[in-house]
Amino acid sequence: MSAPRSRWSAAARTPVGACAGLLLLAVVVLAVLAPVLWGDRASVVDTAALQQGPSDAHLLGTDDLGRDVLFRVLVATRLSLLLAVTATSLGVVLGLVMGTAPSVLPRRAGRLVTSVVNIAVAFPGLLLALFFAVIFGVGATGAVLAIGLAMAPAFARLTQTLSASVAGQDFVAAARTVGVGRIRLLIRHILPNIAEPLAVNATIGAGTSLLAFAGLSFLGLGVQAPDYDWGRLLGEGLGRINLTPAPALAPCAAVIVTGLAFNLFGEAAAALGVRTLPPRSVRHRPLRPPAPGAAGHRTDSEGQPVLAVDDLRVAFPGPAGWTTPVRGVSFAVHPGEAVGVVGESGSGKSLTAMAVSRLVEPPAHVTAQRLEFTGTPLLDTGEKELRLLLGTSLAMVFQDPMSSFNPVMSVGRQLAEVAEHHQGLSRRAAFTRAVDRLRVVHIPAPDRRARQYPHEFSGGMRQRAMIGAGLMGDPRLIIADEPTTALDVTVQRQVLRLLTEVRAERATAILLISHDIAVVARTCDRVLVMYAGRIVEDLPAADPFKAARHPYTRALLAAVPDLGTDRESPLAVIPGRPPEPDQVPEGCAFAPRCPHADDRCRGADPEPVTYTVGHRIACWHPVQDETALVEETTTGGTA
After folding, report:
1. Which helix (H) or strand (E) holds 351?
2. From CA 623, how far away is CA 627, in angstroms rounded?
3. Angle at the Cα of 368 (from 622 to 384), degrees rounded to 5?
């Protein structure tokens, strides 16, 4: 059983959910059968029994035309429920359209829609309903439009918030990387993952709509004679409530009971784990992005690179101005080459990979003197062409294999989406190819596994399946963002071995991001060491312990324990902490933590220079002694 179905079934099994469900079922059955069974009797006019109180012949009395109040309340169930559900459906549809519009429309149009929603949410719903009721006129149709439009802004805000929470997940980024368009991304990946909380809130909203509709009919703005709903019956009976309260209390009780049934059932489902995030509005100050600084252009003698990056900068607006967490990154990756990127958390590794994959969106600003993938400039190419290029030639393997897949789609269908979108294969042929790709990445029983959901895979299998998704096309480059995090040593080795096999068989280049410099040294040809948004050393990975010259690289290597590490001694750490992106000091960012720093280091940031062939370093005082590692310390640092 799927998760959404099991959630609603579990809600129905709780005492509150069961009672609410039974009440809703009874109301629906009554709405269907009451007009058929008692419609004629509810319309019979008896001039001999005008405005009578409860009796054996009329259990709740009669109205001013002698019609039976009980039968009229029962028959009014259909119209009351139908109008409330119609108004709710209108509000939900309009709310979905307005809430998802910013994800589909151009940026300016999307911001305009968001502003309209924010203004509308500021007004009370009942006030909006009355305002629209006056505009659309008296009657059931006008009341439906009024209540639906009044509900739409709040539902749009909820949709925007939930969509934003899902849009940041890795599986959405993966779908964008393979070139899935905005509308398909919305329909296939975002809406299915927010459908459950939206359904819960729509259920609760139906109860609110029922109450609002009864209020408009009570005021004479809703249903008009000869039709009647509970609100109209309440208005007719209220005039003589001191003499005969039953004609007024009966429709009032019907509204309360039905409204509670909707609300309680929605609350029962929400209490079982459906999380609705509170609405929020984020505003950014209009700022000008910083101009990229000059940087030396790196030339490579090994031919045309798969990926060429020169002076890449990523900036974000903030209250005090622009913050640049990636500052002048330059490197190249050639066909069949494996390049590792290491550094502490916050050094800019993942953000660099996201910028290269065109996954960094406004208000962030990405600039570069050169950013080319297979010879195509990524910053100057249209979105349609980029989707086709990146979707077939670039594969992303994210850190968390669980969040890398859409939880409401089977693994095989997610892999097949790439072939359907870019290779024009039919649904069946694409699924067959997906099974074949799962077989290539050593997933056992791929035919059966392709029909399973991500939660039915182990962590290592999900990671291998993610690599298989990248192989659905013909990738020239695989960007693996810490693919072995949270995996045990055996599974780590399997994933790294699979990447090595893909590289050897297809001449696919690999950009491997990791915290573990030892893993990178065993897997890659070159190592890029990042600190505070810059590459401080680019060195061969054959023997980093001997080749490393930057004090920061030496410190990272010294902090890696091995079988020869003295277990009685504390682990080596690097004193201090990396600077925050908006608090990078002048000069070398590593100077406050470096034992070799002097006034020159604190006053000027060194540019990368060639130390030896294939080895570049940005340091005023590179370590010369091959055996001298940074002094190990056990206080005031991070491991």
Report:
1. helix 349-356
2. 10
3. 140
Q: What count of other Cβ atoms lies within 10 Å of the Cβ of residue 546?
A: 11
Tens-place pLDDT, residues 570-591: 777 888 889 988 889 999 999 9
Distance CA 103, CA 428 (A): 30
Domain limits of the chain? Answer: 3-40+63-271, 545-561+569-639
**E strands in 532-627:** 534-540, 574-575, 609-612, 615-617
Query: Which regions in the chain score pLDDT beneath 50?
Result: 1-4, 273-302, 628-639
Residues 6+ apart with CB under 8 A from 368: 292, 309, 310, 311, 312, 313, 379
- At 476 the three-state DSSP class reads coil
CB 38 within 8 A of CB 82: no
Q: Which of 203, 525, 208 is nearest to 335 (CA)?
A: 525
For domain 3-40+63-271, give the CATH number: 1.10.3720.10
pTM of the predicted model over 0.70: no
Q: What residue has token string 């990523």?
A: 314
Angle among Cα 184, 189, 190 to the nearest 5 degrees reads: 100
CA distance linking residue 600 with residue 413, whole number of Å: 57
Chain segment 599-624, per-residue pLDDT in tens: 999 999 999 998 888 899 999 999 87
Residue 466 burial (CB count, 10 A) = 28
Structure token digits, residue 512: 């491997």
| Three-point CA angle 262, 22, 42, nearest 5° | 85
Tell me the angle at which helices 191-218 and 125-136 cross, rounded to the nearest 10 degrees: 70
Distance CA 168, CA 183 (A): 16
Phi and psi at residue 326, to the nearest 5°: -120, 120
Sign of CA dihedral 459, 463, 465, 466: positive
Strand partners, 332: 308
